[in-house]
Design brief:
Elements: E1 3-7, H1 12-23, E2 27-32, E3 42-43, H2 49-55, E4 61-64, H3 69-83, E5 87-89, H4 94-101, E6 109-110, H5 115-128, E7 136-143, H6 150-162, E8 167-171, E9 174-178, E10 184-188, E11 195-200, H7 206-209, E12 219-224, H8 225-232, E13 243-252, E14 255-264, H9 270-282, H10 294-297, H11 300-306, E15 312-313
Parallel strand pairs: 1-2, 1-4, 2-3, 4-5, 5-6, 7-12
Antiparallel strand pairs: 7-13, 8-9, 10-11, 11-12, 13-14, 14-15
Length: 314
């Protein structure tokens, strides 16, 4: 049985990843910083490279679900490189994603292989089809709400601190740091959701993953106002999972292509994204080496089809 280390295995997303690995016939090896929450697992500290090396002994890959990724990504990536195994994380922290894309790597490294960053990148890549470039890409998140985990809230605080509480947008082929208010707009989501109030330039990891391999000077992400309000309330996760529609629009020379994904629970759906990525890497179904986003590394349409029944595409 193929062993995959899950770093942060006792966290909310980590538990989904562990369950998905077992469902697919992998042997999940549980790891993280808190030994008390890992009976029978392999505790390891990001401040102790030797402990990470011991945790990675004999595994085929590692999935990092432990945020803030500003603290965990680099040490776990370096340990994976020493072990010669692929690394996948679920980071939605823009600054941590930028740090990862700036690295050189021999083994495959996939940042943001999650609902935010990975799914939008796959949808945009599939929507591009035979286009070699586009004028603009829009990723609109139609969430019925957003019940953040403690990890999401902590990661958000780290990200805001690293950029001095400014917000980020991707325009003119580069990242811009600005202080103005988010635009209040309406987005025409596919039915049955329909038009919804959104916050424009509500920047997610897609502005890092998509331009990392697609020739496009403008990537804009949007969030339904109700979900943004839930996040701003900073109340830890409780209640029913969110339903979502991720609507991607690609425009080039007056033409437009559109692709959407529908499902439930943004944290649960991260698990099949990350585990499908590991399975494809380990079976050689990749198109790149080193650090690469989901859209660059995989056959995007085929990957999206493999997400059924977790996500409905179209």
């Amino acid at each position: 049985m193929t062993s995959v280390l899950v770093y942060g295995a006792y966290g909310h997303t980590g538990r989904f990843v562990v369950a998905e690995l077992r469902e697919r016939g992998f042997e999940p090896i549980l790891s993280g910083r808190d030994a008390a929450r890992l009976p029978g697992g392999r505790p390891a500290s990001v401040d102790d490279p030797a402990s990470l090396d011991r945790a990675l002994e004999g595994v085929a890959a590692v999935i990092n679900t432990a945020g803030p990724f500003a603290e965990t990504a680099a040490p776990v990536i370096e340990a994976a490189q020493r072990a010669g195994v692929p690394y996948v994380d679920v980071a939605a922290e823009l600054e941590a994603n930028l740090d990862t894309f700036a690295r050189a790597a021999d083994s495959v490294v996939v940042p943001a292989m999650a609902f935010f960053g990975g799914l939008g990148d796959l949808l945009a890549t599939a929507a591009m089809g035979d286009w070699t470039s586009a004028d603009e890409i829009h990723v609109a998140y139609g969430l019925s709400g957003w019940h953040p985990t403690a990890g999401t809230l902590a990661a958000g605080r780290v990200s805001r601190s690293r950029r001095g509480d400014r917000r980020i947008r991707f325009a003119g082929g580069r990242l811009e740091y600005v202080d103005d208010a988010l635009p209040k707009l309406s987005w025409p989501f596919p039915e049955p959701l329909g038009a919804q109030p959104v916050l424009g330039e509500f920047t997610m990891a897609d502005v890092i993953t998509i331009p990392s391999h697609l020739d496009v000077p403008s990537v804009t992400t949007y969030m339904t106002s109700v979900a943004a309000a839930c996040l701003s309330a900073a109340q830890e996760r409780a209640g029913s999972p969110e339903t979502f529609v991720v609507d991607v629009v690609v425009r080039s020379g007056g033409e437009e292509r559109r692709l959407a994904a529908r499902g439930q629970d943004i944290y649960a759906v991260t698990a099949p994204l990350a585990v499908e990525a590991v399975e494809r890497i380990l079976t050689g179904r990749v198109r790149a080496k080193g650090v690469a986003s989901a859209g660059e590394l995989f056959d995007a349409p085929d990957f999206l089809r493999a997400l059924a029944p977790h996500v409905t595409i179209g």
